[in-house]
Amino acid sequence: MQESIIHWLSNCPEVKQVHWPAGQIVLYTGQACENLVVVEQGQIAVQRPALDGRMITLYHIDRGQSCVLSSGCILNRQPFPAQAVCLTQVMAFLVPAPRVRQWTRENEHWRSFMFETLSQRLAHLIDLVDSVVFKSLPERLWDWLQANAEVTSETHDSGVSCAIVARTHQQIADELGTSREVVSRLLKKMERAGKLRLQRGRVVLLSY
After folding, report:
1. DSSP-derived secondary structure letter, 160
2. pLDDT, tens only, 14-34
3. Domains of the chain
4. pTM of the complete model beyond 0.70
């Protein structure tokens, strides 16, 4: 479905293609949703900010995916309740709000894409709620590190390949809805236990 949507949007004259750098905020809390973003390349994080400045990441938007919160805001003409920020360089399609509403009414292919996106996001958010409610923060942190690590050609002292998480402590905190200080303290504890090694801008998993 994702690849067919990308091909279809690339041939729609009313759909604009954009390029954003890593770190670009593409939607702010309270902003009107004038377009629906569909990612062609890269990754966007949709985050919910708290009054004390903390963030929690609700979900990511990857290739061929759109933002279900944006689509809901467009269909119901409501402001965006979160924040969307580029984690990498992003190439994306911008579908104007009037086309989103029209295609949802009239185009079966587009409607299937929208409902598939909604189903995937609901399943992910249920998993997120389960994790927040039923797991401790150290468990959630370790699970997140394992899920987001990439195995590289680097090896540690035992000769085993390393798995790298190329995120800062603040970025990890924003994923988990906690503070940078708490994440740093937990990572230091895991480092002392021999589970990982901390390096500038990344975490090297030794127990993977």
Report:
1. P
2. 999 999 999 999 999 999 999
3. 2-134 (2.60.120.10), 137-205 (1.10.10.10)
4. yes
